């Protein structure tokens, strides 16, 4: 006997928590778009979608404003709760940047010296990372360009990353007055060796996508320059040689005349994301052809290792970052934000250390000594 006699409520429930009020189309904003799932021949599959969450602030390298952070949270919450969504793709507008982190203008002009406001902001920022790590759909980071600072942090929160070969990766915090505590100090040591994680986290060096692939940060690097109908690899990076004079050179930036020649050559070559998007579709199609429950259980099992340190650190980090907005962040983000006025994007670090060595109080006079002065 079948079970028709059991009382059942068959009215489909709506689990959507946040509406579309935090998304937009005009920069700066977060764009949320449901694109049809496509099969390997590019045919749309009826009733199934991929949620694209796009940071749309290209003039400021897709840095996220406070409103955009809310848009990302809303995006991953929607992707998670929408039963027709198979996977989420996190990307940025254009071909320059995926994201270069928090909006330094907002940081300098609003949050600096408003630590409690920044505490509220950090609650949103932490919510953004959590929304990625808790999304009940696999999350692909489509790295369309630079993934720097907080951009690197939200990128590493994603499950898998495929990258344009023009992208560069790294941190900026220690140069601009923050600590990469929005995930990088927790995630980087899982991806890279401890030595590489340490250097990449603090030095603020930017490393090529090829170098990061070789060091296991990302899954795949895809050529995006299409010369005379044929994709070529980023000519600025050494990709045809592994060892030179006993050193690993694969993935390093070319220098001198070779770099100049590469830059010249790149000038007229259009950027085309066809192969990058094919790779994104291939990964999504692989996910779509797996049991959804087994898939997300496995993904959450791996995410748990990222969360282990993130969950322990995110609250103390929030409190420290909040307090820091009155001190080093005030100096660093204002220096970066006024670079067009002063001609310098960082403070005089040696002067600051000399003043600290003398036991100087950290007041407006001291701050004035370490800032570059506005040019005539
Ligand atoms: C190294 C850079 C990423 C790239 O340098 P470069 O290629 O020389 O480009 P720029 O001329 O510097 O930048 C082009 C224009 O974009 C603007 N820009 C770039 N990044 C940002 C940003 N994050 N916010 C606002 N605007 C940005 C830049 O001002 C230029 O505009 P213009 O009008 O002059 O044409 C370099 O751009 C760089 O270092 N950017 C800043 C990176 C940064 O400091 N991000 C914030 C770090 S802190 C953070 O993200 C955090 C996250 C959570 C936890 C706490 C936290 O601090």
Automatic annotation (TrEMBL):
**Pfam families in the record:** ECH_1
EC main class here is hydrolase
What is the official name of this protein in its record?
6-oxocyclohex-1-ene-1-carbonyl-CoA hydratase
Identify the Gene3D superfamilies for this entry: 2-enoyl-CoA Hydratase, Chain A, domain 1 (3.90.226.10)
Supply the InterPro entries for this chain: ClpP/crotonase-like_dom_sf (IPR029045), Dearomat_hydrolase (IPR017613), Enoyl-CoA_hydra/iso (IPR001753)
The superkingdom listed in its UniProt entry is Bacteria
Sorted alphabetically, which keywords does the UniProt record give? Hydrolase
Q: Which molecular function terms from Gene Ontology are attached?
A: 6-hydroxycyclohex-1-ene-1-carboxyl-CoA hydratase activity; hydrolase activity, acting on acid carbon-carbon bonds, in ketonic substances
Q: Report if keyword Hydrolase is assigned.
A: yes
């Amino acid at each position: 006997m079948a079970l028709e006699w059991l009382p059942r409520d068959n009215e489909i429930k709506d689990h959507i928590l946040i509406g579309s009020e935090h998304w937009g189309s005009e920069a700066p904003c977060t764009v949320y778009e449901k694109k049809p799932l496509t099969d390997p021949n590019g045919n749309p599959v009826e009733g199934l979608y991929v949620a694209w969450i796009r940071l749309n602030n290209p003039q400021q390298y897709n840095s996220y404003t406070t409103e955009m952070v809310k848009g990302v949270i809303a995006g991953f919450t929607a992707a998670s709760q929408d039963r027709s969504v198979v996977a989420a793709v996190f990307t940025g507008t254009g071909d320059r940047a995926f994201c270069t982190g928090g909006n330094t203008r907002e940081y300098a002009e609003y949050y600096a010296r408003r630590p409690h406001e920044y505490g509220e902001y950090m609650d949103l920022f932490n919510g953004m990372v959590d929304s990625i790590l808790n999304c009940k759909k696999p999350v692909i980071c489509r790295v369309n360009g630079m993934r720097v600072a907080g951009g690197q942090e939200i990128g590493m929160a994603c499950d898998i990353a495929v990258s344009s070969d023009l992208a560069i990766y790294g941190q900026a915090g220690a140069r601009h007055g923050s600590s990469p505590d929005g995930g990088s100090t927790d995630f980087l040591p899982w991806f890279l060796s401890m030595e590489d994680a340490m250097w990449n986290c603090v030095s603020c060096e930017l490393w090529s996508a090829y170098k990061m692939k070789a060091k296991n940060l990302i899954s795949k690097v895809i050529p995006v320059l299409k010369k005379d109908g044929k994709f070529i690899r980023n000519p600025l990076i050494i990709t045809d040689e592994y060892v030179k004079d006993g050193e690993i050179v694969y993935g390093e930036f070319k220098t001198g005349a070779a770099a100049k020649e590469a830059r010249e050559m790149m000038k007229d070559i259009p950027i085309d994301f066809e192969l990058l998007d094919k790779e994104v579709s291939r990964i999504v199609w692989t996910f779509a052809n797996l049991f959804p429950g087994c898939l997300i259980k496995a993904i959450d099992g791996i995410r748990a290792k990222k969360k282990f340190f993130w969950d322990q650190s995110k609250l103390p980090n929030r409190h420290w970052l909040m307090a820091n907005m009155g001190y080093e962040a005030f100096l660093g983000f204002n220096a970066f934000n006024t670079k067009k006025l002063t001609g310098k994007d960082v403070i005089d670090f040696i002067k600051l250390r000399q003043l600290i060595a003398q036991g100087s109080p950290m007041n407006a006079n001291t701050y004035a000594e370490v800032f570059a002065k506005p040019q005539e």
